[in-house]
Amino acid sequence: MLKIVAKTAVVAALATAVAAALSGCEASQVSWANHTFTLSGSCLQLQTVTLHNGKAIGANGIEVDLVKVYYGDLNHDGVQDAVVMLDCSAAPTGGNGTGSEIQVFTRDAKPIARLVQPDRYGSGNPFGTQFNFNNVGVHSDVLYTGAWGWLPGDAHCCPSAYDVYRWDWNGHGFTPVDVQTNQ
Fold first, then answer.
1. Beta pairing, strands 110-115 & 161-169
2. What pLDDT digit, counting tens, does each position of 112-163 carry?
3. How far is it between the farthest Cα atoms of the chain?
4. Of 43, 109, 111, 134, which is least packed with CB atoms within 10 Å of its CB?
């Protein structure tokens, strides 16, 4: 009977150690290219998709692609966070709609924020604003993004406003701070 109790204690200790190791998964250890994401309306009204090798086909045939992942301690809690950039396109179904989304995760792939591109021009344009993935980065644990904005009268092809934002952590989310405007 003592051997069974000892073995049970060893198995319990090992299970606790494995659970502790898994619960401490750093953001850089997550396979973002094979992760399940819940997307917002900015990514063409999709709900939940699971990427396989960085791609997924979501609702209504909309393609979702992992663009890039950046790392840094963005909420300044001493734990590395991941900035995941996703692109959505209706092109595979014959449409011309696109969307972009940036989500921020911390340890254990726990979501902490979904960035919403500021529509500072209030154009009412259905295109709103869209992140420019060529101008996104983390510098000194601060996230910066570029965003195209459509002014009233702009065609879908041709946004005429461009802004760069610094995203400051406010204790429960990120606040965009305009650092450069080009109209």
1. unpaired
2. 999 887 777 775 555 667 888 889 999 999 999 998 888 888 887 788 889 9
3. 81
4. 134
CA dist 139 and 46 (Å) reads 30
- 85 versus 62: the higher-pLDDT residue is 85
In 3D space, the residue among 72, 22, 15, 63 whose CA is nearest the CA of residue 39 turns out to be 63
Side-chain half-sphere CA neighbours of 62 within 13 A: 25
| d(C-alpha 100, C-alpha 134), whole Å | 12
Look up the pTM and report it.
0.79
Contact status, residue 24 vs residue 107, Cβ threshold 8 Å: yes
For the segment 88-111, what is each residue's pLDDT rounded down to a tens digit?
887 655 556 677 889 999 999 999
Q: What is the CA angle 147-151-156, rounded to 5?
A: 80
